[in-house]
Amino acid sequence: MTISGWGERYSVILKEFRYDEKKDEESAIILDSILEKSDSSKKLITLIRQKTVFVIGSGPSLSSAIPELKKYENVVTIAADSSVKPLVTNGIIPDIIVTDLDGDEKTLDKIAKTKSIFVVHAHGDNIGKLEFAKKFKNCIGTSQSKPFKKIKNFGGFTDGDRGVFLANHFQAKRIILFGMDFGKRIGKFSETKKSERMIKLMKLKKGESLLEWLSTITKSELFTTSRPISGFKKISYKQLDDIIT
User: Cβ contacts of residue 240 below 8 Å, gap of 6+?
Assistant: First the structure.
């Protein structure tokens, strides 16, 4: 079931970014044909429902967040694709990885058979990469367009904000953001080319606006250790223990 109000926001995204809805749907159909039936959705319910969930992006503050994240091995982690390489390099294997398959393939391949659940997103620009999803032991598919068969739509646009929408869908008790700096700086871990900088900033701005909207309807408690965002309480790393316990 898609979050109420998503259809309107998806229509705006199509217009703003000049995306082709038919291409999104084509990509989703291909991903559905690739994926095998799995119980990963049930695993997500067990992992997330009424739990504290960390959602990790690859913004500038990720570098300072990594030492803090290593202190909380028992907290559920949802990682945006571009944050996975630095996390794994530092010994952190995310419980859930939200990806449209444009991140570091070597790192994804390295952890493909672990307990991590891969939430693979199909859109018009990544059709050629979808076969990579076959590598993942635990995998479910998502789309921006209408859900069907094995393809879900939890809401969200970029890997980072889709992670927050995912946590909301599965009824996390509280969601805490790390490395989610929706500003004019792009984190080094995103490895964004100069030619892609403007579109990247546009996507970040859209992701932020979607989270601001989500904050008005979610039942989850929302916090951020990153750059302030409307609807999320800004906290320091020192406050984490008090909030989690």
Answer: 68, 72, 176, 225
The pairing of beta strand 151-152 with beta strand 138-143: parallel
Task: Read off the pLDDT of residues 91-144 as tens digits, 9 standing for 90 and up.
Answer: 999 999 999 999 899 999 999 999 999 999 999 999 999 999 999 999 999 999
- Vertex 115: Cα angle to 110 and 121 (nearest 5): 75
> Is residue 195 over pLDDT 80?
no
Q: 200 versus 42: which is more confidently predicted?
A: 42
DSSP string, 210-221: HHHHHTTT--SE
Distance CA 174, CA 159 (A): 19
E strand intervals along the chain: 52-56, 76-80, 96-99, 117-122, 138-143, 151-152, 174-178, 221-224, 233-234
pTM assigned to the model: 0.95
- Side-chain-side CA neighbours of 90 within 13 Å: the count stands at 17
For the chain, the distance separating the N- and C-terminal CA atoms, rounded to the nearest angstrom, is 31
The model's confidence at residue 10, banded by pLDDT at 50, 70 and 90, is very high
Cα–Cα distances in Å, from 134 out to 88, 92, 217, 232?
Answer: 21, 23, 35, 36
What are the CA-CA distances from residue 167 to residues 24, 177, 200 (Å)?
A: 23, 11, 23
- What's the mean per-residue pLDDT of the chain? 94
Give the residue from 17, 22, 36, 38 showing the smallest Cα distance to 146. 22
Query: Dihedrals φ, ψ of 74, to 5°?
Result: -95, 5
